[in-house]
Amino acid sequence: MSVLALTPNQSLTVKQQASSSGVAVTMSVSLDPDALEFPVEAESRSFQNVPEQTPVSPSPAAAQDRAPVSQGSPITLSLLLRGFGGLIIVAAFVLFLFEGWRESDDLSRGLLLIGHTLALTLAGLASGHWLHENKGARLFIALALAAVPVNVAFVGGLIYPFLTWDASGSLSAAASVWTQSQGHLAMGPALLLSVGSLLALALSVWLGLRIMARQSVAALSGLYLLANAALLIPTRADVVVSLMLVGLTLTLGLFSLRLRQRDPTLATVEGRFARALLMLPLLILAGRSLWLYAPDALFLTTLSLLGYLALRFTLAAMAPASQWRGLIETLAVSMALFVTTLASGALLPAWPIAEGVHLPLAAGIFATMLLDLSQLSERRRRGYQSTAALLLSLSLLIDLALFGGFALAVVTLVGGLAALGFGYAIRARLLFAIGVITALSALTTLATDALAHFSLGGWSALVLLGIGIIITGSALERHGERLKTGLAGWRAHFAQAD
């Protein structure tokens, strides 16, 4: 005897009882709407527990209905509709942000924007609770979370005229999108609207991230609200915005990597979206300055540095065996070179820095980023470190040949000795030879300068430097093994901490 029943969770249950043996077989077939989007393989897995003596013979009509699905594309109509609807909503928020609705007053604009964001959150909750459809629900929640920085940017423009410390008249005509509209609000109502909007947005962020990253909802909510808070700071100065962008990128990137190591669920699609979402307020903060104001060399250099940091944190989060790792690493090195070019070509000459130190500073910037990348690449670690030391030594050597001077010669000597020692430690002949040449050139310059312009201070410094080098060599000879043991202990200590 067979009994058909619909359970409350929309599953069809077939019970077959054998009167002779008293054995009962239960078979469940999911009727979840999402299951309609998968090929027949999913259906075959649903029947894999059915005994061979009780085969299920589908009707000809059912076979005809399933035939197109088995040969269909993984891109379904529902997926296309969800994607198209999501793009429309994103485009609407982008247009509101950069073009604006200028014919209305501040109160209507603010209420409309916050209302749409809350409507997306409620639509996601309702879709998951009543329709039991997770894909559309998560799309609504993702769009609501992505709309939060747009709301905060509007609130930041609303309170900017009352709380700003920028000089008057610094705003351009395009800034009306980011400040008050034609119907101005007084300070009291504007602050009241801002506080109410921020409280509603904070609740929306917590609800959304509780769905996207359940185990790390508190940490991710705090980081996301911190990033959005930068849009509320009432200044548009390039220096302040640049410092905020760099500081927040480092903070969010480091904490995001630590959360990823602690919470394995952040490796899922929802988890990756929640971590990438942290950078959206920073993109809007940078876009605001690019859209409204003429960025200077400092801001452009900052944007290129942010590009390097984004690639760097992406590289740190990737698996060592990932096929994209080489490409990301190459892009990071290229971006590091681009940062160095911008800094040396436009930024350093604009600052009151002596021309003689421009080349070593530029080499130091590039070498610092190479040393940073060496911590993320096991295969190319020695190569990055050797290149960094080589660039520093060559820059000092070229600078010494062009400008000379006692102080520069001392710095070049120290750099040459460091390159010499590092080249000897890693058995890099070219680096060792460059270090020897750099150190000898610096000693020659110091000796020539001492003979040409004798001074007690220079002579004393030269003697003290020679004494220090001799003592360093003697210490390495006498306590070399002990130093190696100590360094090994330090490495083991930090390896255990990691």
From TrEMBL:
State the residue spans of region: Disordered.
46-68
Q: Could you tell me the keywords of this UniProt record?
A: Membrane, Transmembrane, Transmembrane helix
Give the transmembrane ranges: 79-98, 110-132, 139-163, 183-209, 216-233, 239-260, 272-291, 297-319, 331-351, 388-420, 426-447, 454-476
According to the entry, what is the taxonomic lineage of the organism?
Bacteria, Pseudomonadati, Pseudomonadota, Gammaproteobacteria, Chromatiales
Instruction: Write the protein's name.
Output: DUF2157 domain-containing protein
Presence of the UniProt keyword 4Fe-4S in the record: no
In the UniProt record, does the keyword Ubl conjugation occur? no
| Comp. bias regions, Polar residues | 46-56
